[in-house]
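Researcher: Structure prediction, please.
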Amino acid sequence: MRRRIIREKVVQALYAHEISGDPVDHVITCVLVGLEKNKAAHEFARNLVIQTVLHSADIDKIIRARVANWDFKRIAILDRLILRMGICELLYFREIPPKVTMNEAIELAKLFSTERSGQFVNGVLDAVLNDIKEHGPEQLGEGALTKAGRGLYNGEPIPRPVKPRKTAQ
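Model: Predicted structure follows.
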């Protein structure tokens, strides 16, 4: 099963959870129906929904820092959910190349949200990815991982900085 279709289901599950406030497990059972036939697809979707919800507060801080001139609550709900999912993939799903995450998020924004959402999502995710490249993933949140596998940043895992961090004085 194509991951695009799986991600579409994930966005639907995140939306259902956000709007209804229902427990994540209930939303997963209701929205990810049909994916159970493919164990790998269902497991990926389930993990992406759970990790996105679990880390949403930290991810929202990352989003807020990149959209300082925007009122966070005025960002279209689907844009926020797609950004959360994309940033979650960048930080917590080692095996997914950043370019894949970005392309998928942009296409989902075009499909589910407004005419300009693709550009908006691209801009925010690009800023997050540039911060990871420049400062390392730890700068963005606890548990952030380097990427591993094919198709990654210049064919290698995203480099970690070697320069010392500034200390508060």
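Model: Residues 150-169 have pLDDT under 50 and may be disordered.
Researcher: Thanks, that helps.
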